[in-house]
Amino acid sequence: MSQTVDRALSILPLLAEGPADLGQVADRLGVHKSTALRLLRTLHEHGLVYRQSDQRYRLGARLFALAQEAMENLDVREIAHAHLVRLNEKIGHTVHLAVYEENEVLYIDKVESRYPVRMYSRIGKPVAITVAAVAKLLLADLPEHERRALAEKLDYPMYTARSTPHATAFLQELAKVREQGWATDLGGHEESINCVAAPIRGADGRVVAAMSVSAPNVVVTADELLTLLPLVRRTADAISGEYSGRTPVKDSSV
C-alpha cells in the first residue's frame, strides 16, 4: 500500500512540469501502463489530475483549491511564536513579528525583553513605516510599481537625524534591502533604539511577514546587535520552512 501511495504521489510533481501522456507517466514511475492508468484514474476521481481531450493528463483544479484553502488557513503568528520565544530566551532582547495589511505594517506578536528597559510597542499597532526594519522588508518585496506608488504618497517625518527624508531615499533603501535580504533601523525612529530584521517567506518565495530584534543602546550597541543578524536570519528561515511546509519543525535557536 505504501508503495502504491508513493507512486501516486510521484505523479503530481511530474505533471507540475506540464501535461504528460500515459506512456510518459509509466516511464517516469518505471511501471506498466496498466498500473500507471490505475493510479491516474484514482487521482482523477479525487480531482487531483485531469485528463485533457488529447488524452494527456495535467494537475486538477481540486489540487489548487486544496492548496489555496491550506494557505488561507495558515496562521503565521501561531507558527512563528515558539521560534520567537526561543530566540528571546537565547538573546534576551525584544522580538517582534509584523505583517503588511491595507497599506500599514502592523505588529502581530511581541516577546518582551528580559532587561528593565522595555520597547514601547504594542501588538496591533502600526509601525513607523518609513524607518522600521520590518516595514522595509515587507515593502521591499512589493512589485516595483507598487513600491514606487506607495513611496510617493507616504509622509516622511524626521523622527531623528537618521530618519528616511524623502521618497527617493526610501526607494533606494528598499532596493538595498531587497538585494541583501535583511534590514536595519539604526536610530531612525528613536535615537537610542536599534533593530535588525529578517523576512519570513511563503512557499512561493514571497515575504508574508517580517521578524525583528530590537534593543536600546544602554543594553547593547548597534554593532553588537548586528552580530545577532545570522541568528535572526536562521530563525526567520526556520519559520519560513515550517510555514511553507518545506522543512520539518526544528529548534531554530541553536
Automatic annotation (TrEMBL):
Gene3D superfamilies per the UniProt record, alphabetical: 3.30.450.40, Winged helix-like DNA-binding domain superfamily/Winged helix DNA-binding domain
GO molecular function: DNA binding; DNA-binding transcription factor activity
Coiled-coil segments: none
DNA-binding found in the keyword field: yes
Superkingdom per UniProt: Bacteria
Keywords, in A-Z order: Activator, DNA-binding, Glycerol metabolism, Transcription, Transcription regulation
Domain HTH iclR-type residue range list: 2-61
InterPro entries cross-referenced by the UniProt entry: GAF-like_dom_sf, HTH_MetabolicPath_Reg, Tscrpt_reg_IclR_C, Tscrpt_reg_IclR_N, WH-like_DNA-bd_sf, WH_DNA-bd_sf
Domain IclR-ED: 62-245
SMART domains, per database record: HTH_ICLR
One Pfam family hit: IclR_C
One biological process term in Gene Ontology: negative regulation of DNA-templated transcription
Role of this protein: May be an activator protein for the gylABX operon.
Protein name per UniProt: Glycerol operon regulatory protein
Species whose genome carries this gene: Streptomyces haneummycinicus
